[in-house]
Specification:
This protein is of the alpha/beta class. It has one domain (about 1-210): Alpha-Beta Complex (Spore Coat Polysaccharide Biosynthesis Protein SpsA, Chain A). It has eight helices and ten strands. A hairpin with a 2-residue loop joins β2 (about 40) and β3 (about 45). The longest helix is centred in the middle third of the chain and has 17 residues, at about 115-130. It is globular and about 45 Å long.
């Protein structure tokens, strides 16, 4: 029993191998008065919390952004789009090009409740599936919908990403149905994150006010 607990603790503290952590911060930010990553919750910016968490999980971490001046102070490598900017797909493409690892885990900069256990779950599912068959992406399903901005993308998807970007076919959920995707079952996700807090994001001032109005403050 003690040995099992020690092994579990060691596993939870180990860095995730062969996957780079990426925070996508390339959005237009038209519905908020300043970069959403710098929204503060309980005195900590969303992106600051995300960076701390991602650095604890991955050996390499960087931010995908086309406004590097906004993020220089964070002291983390920044990656800009290498193809025409077409939203998250461009950020994923550029991040894969720049990663030293064969895959990346991506999350959005406006997700305030990232959970290490959920991230590890998605990365482990990616590892399990990629050993059995060739896959391009591994994303969780919550409320019956895939969550493409919280998933693992393999560098083998680069040609498909490039075609999509250059042809302006950049709807990520549709894209996932056209490549070799593995969708992590909602039952597995809810076993770790019952309320799906990991997938909450802040798009508007109203979203922020709603989150701040939660009694638990989380």
């Amino acid at each position: 029993m003690i040995e099992t607990e020690v092994t579990k603790e060691r596993t939870e503290n180990e860095k995730i191998k062969e996957i780079t952590g990426v925070i996508l911060a390339g959005g237009q930010n038209t519905r908020f008065p300043f970069p959403k990553g710098f929204i503060r919750i309980k005195g900590i910016s969303i992106i600051g919390r995300a960076l701390t968490l991602m650095r604890s999980l991955f050996g390499d971490v960087f931010i995908s952004t086309n406004v590097p001046e906004a993020y220089f102070s964070l002291g983390v490598p920044l990656v800009g789009d290498v193809l025409p900017s077409r939203g998250p797909m461009s950020g994923i493409y550029s991040s894969l090009i720049n990663s030293r690892d064969p895959a990346i885990f991506v999350c959005a900069c406006d997700m305030p409740f990232l959970d290490a256990k959920v991230i590890r779950l998605i990365c482990e599912k990616y590892r399990e599936q990629s050993q059995r068959k060739h896959i391009h992406a591994t994303v969780p399903v919550f409320n019956g919908e895939p969550q493409p901005l919280f998933g693992v993308y393999c560098n083998t998807v680069l040609p498909a990403l490039e075609r999509g970007i250059l042809n302006d076919k950049v709807a990520l959920k549709q894209f996932l149905t056209e490549i070799k995707s593995y969708f992590v079952a909602e039952t597995d996700v809810r076993a770790t994150d019952p309320e799906g807090k990991s997938f909450v994001n802040i798009n508007t001032v109203e979203d922020y006010e709603m989150i701040m109005g939660r009694r638990d403050g989380r």
